[in-house]
Design brief:
By secondary structure, the protein is of the alpha/beta class. It has two domains: 144 residues, 3-Layer(aba) Sandwich (Rossmann fold); 149 residues, Rossmann fold, CATH 3.40.50. It contains 13 helices and twelve strands. It starts with a helix and ends with a strand.
Length: 327
Amino acid sequence: MKKKITVLALCAMLLALCSFAEAQQPKKVPRIGYLSYGSVEIEKSSLAALQQGLRELGYVEGKNIVIEGRYAEGRSERFPELLAELIGLKVDVLVVAGDPAAHAAKKATSTIPIVIVTSPDPVGTGLIASLAHPGGNVTGLSDFHGGVVTKRFELLKDVVPSASRVAVLLNPANRSNPLQLKDIQAAAPAFRVTIISFEVKGPDDIDNTFTTIGKERPEALLVVGDRLFATHQKRIFEFVNKRRLPAIYSQRGYVDAGGLMSYGTNFADQYRRTATYVDKILKGAKPADLPVEQPTKFEFVVNLKAAKQIGLTIPPNVLVRADKVIK
């Protein structure tokens, strides 16, 4: 009987030691890969919003989560190299900003979960099977540009009612940009406007494109959402100010930096909400089972300083519709 008790006590002691050893082993810290088509500078505020969303869910960078950032600086040819680095780091989740980054990530891996932050038309561009049932390893948020881009065009026309020729700046490497151009072209006849489109495939194309736009003499400019343009927004501002050309952009970041006006998704809200997808995936959810969300917040922002710089008066009926007016 005494021998039996001793054996039981020994087993209990071994179990206790195993439990203690297991408790002493450090838990694996999740590693998030963050890939953007833009630059470090452009992504600062967006990344901060993502970090805020993660903190609200209990993740503190450097403590119980690590974010590895990689930035293409508007050069899509860098994606394979940057993705190879992130995959080599064995990241648990890839958070991708911008449609070109999303497609590059999907091509690079079919096993690592991919969370898209801003993809205007993930179904139309082939990223996912459907919003409700994405399938594969991609999920996240769409910034739903179908009606947004035409609303942007309408606002530009409201600000410059006399405009009959409007230039559209787009990046054909971003699969959503040509789709948005079609929406604008479809809306144009009702406003008696001729659309002149200009393609920019990379930073080296910008100056030549501006020269061509100058020769065409449009009366307004619509810049389609793309991180290539966000990365080089100062060059755009210099051009439109020199030409005294009213322009509208896809998000508030442009206007905060000196652009005239923007209409689109609230990017800070998008990035905060992205954290919920990261959290669910880290807790075992599969991207294929997580529906892609559409945006809930849109904002119209006007910069009166920029208007004054080009000699433009924003009509009162437009100003009252703005969510934010920068004076």
